Amino acid sequence: MTDLAQFHALGPRGRAYVYERASAAEAALLQRDWSLDRRIAQQPPEGDWRVWLLMAGRGFGKTRAGAEWVRGLAESDGALRIALIGAGLAEARAVMVEGPSGLLAIAPRGARPDWEPSLRRLRWPNGAVAHLYSAAEPESLRGPEHHAAWGDEVAKWPHGLAAWDNLMLGLRCGDRPRAVATTTPRPVPLLRALLAQGDVIVTRGATEENARHLPRAWLVAMRDSYGGTRLGRQELDGELIEEAEDALWTRDLLERCRVRRAPAFRRVVVAVDPPAGIGGDACGIVAVALGADGLGYVIEDASVAGLAPAGWARAVARTADAHGADRVVAEANNGGAMVESVLRAADHRLPVRLVHASRGKAARAEPIAALYEAGKVRHVGGFPALEDELCGLIAGGDYEGPGRSPDRADALVWALSELMLGRAGAPALRRL
């Protein structure tokens, strides 16, 4: 391989040619040198911008771009205070700080920041500091002041508008306060608001632009499975797909239903939509509660994927135990006796009731969507995967959401039907 100075002088095609023929050790060296490895779309825009929105498909390199932007700022000015915001603290830590493209992994030797998990703080050798925040707690951003901010997967943020507004109000230190937002697109209110602002610089991109860092077999499989579909256009091509026509749920409706806390519960139900096999569809597991105010509250999406029956049954038992569930409702269309037996094997005390589907998923979902429209259901926090499925359910029976089947959404429908509709939904005292 040519030396690094010569590599810098090559054009894009020349660098790609060298990169493809480099040994594993040489390729690793090039990857560590971000000035060599980055693509144009991963570079911050020129000019006097305040917000850079990098909206692209999965695997595009958004996290690396955001982390490198933060690293460059921190290493250049030891007086900076930087905000790092994720959908939740655990996700922010796992992806933005400790992940393979996070701030610790990309730091060069001698300039690695100290990570203080108990304080949620990174401190660089020159004194620059970054603090972690959760978008699920937007009030935590009320008060702190920053020179710069990086928000990751902003389309997944619960209470996204409130968190972003508090962040912007505190982004007032220095002469040029700036923020970078990285995300795979979802048509949520926060993303729509950012795209409507004239001072937001937007960069778009597709998964395949980063093909040299992704397994070819995975890329082929993703294109074969999702190419040309709504999900593929969103998750691979980075296209913002607007609400499906006649969708039973909309993003705006779900945002109106979101709350940060719930009152005391009168009853808790966990519903499970078992997968037909192993390694295919997810096992939908959703916990809902009837509040003292008479409203239904979605309190957890505990869905799992790729597990044998004993594995997902244990996940159901853990969820029921964690919330003190009065009832576990399980769809029994695919092997009812087996479903009940594996659930009772996981915990013989589970108050299991089997239900049988006589109508399609969308038809069963329509009365539950009506409860949302009537303001009778709340989401305690955000459930991105579940909400994606809800917004993919179409009146009339079609499904245009992620995955082959809306397993999480179906579990939610069973749970809220048990909790709030008909005789089975009558209020009851919680089991002690």
Walk me through this protein's architecture:
This protein is an alpha/beta fold and 432 residues long. The protein has two domains: 38-235, Rossmann fold; 251-425, Nucleotidyltransferase, domain 5, CATH 3.30.420.280. 37% of the residues lie in helices and 18% in strands. The chain has 17 helices and 15 strands. It has helices spanning 4-9, 12-20, 24-32, 34-37, 62-76, 89-97, 103-106, 160-170, 189-196, 216-226, 230-235, 251-256, 309-323, 336-346, 361-373, 384-390, 407-420, and strands spanning 51-56, 81-86, 114-116, 121-123, 129-134, 148-152, 178-183, 200-205, 258-259, 265-273, 284-291, 296-301, 327-331, 352-355, 377-380. The strands form two sheets. An eight-stranded mixed β-sheet has the order 3-4-5-2-6-7-1-8, sandwiched between helices. A seven-stranded mixed β-sheet has the order 9-15-12-11-10-13-14, sandwiched between helices. Strand 11 and strand 12 (296-301) form a beta hairpin. Helix 13 crosses helix 14 and helix 15 packs across helix 17. The longest helix is centred in the N-terminal third of the chain and has 15 residues, at 62-76. It is globular, with a radius of gyration of 24 Å. Mean pLDDT is 87; it is low at 423-432.
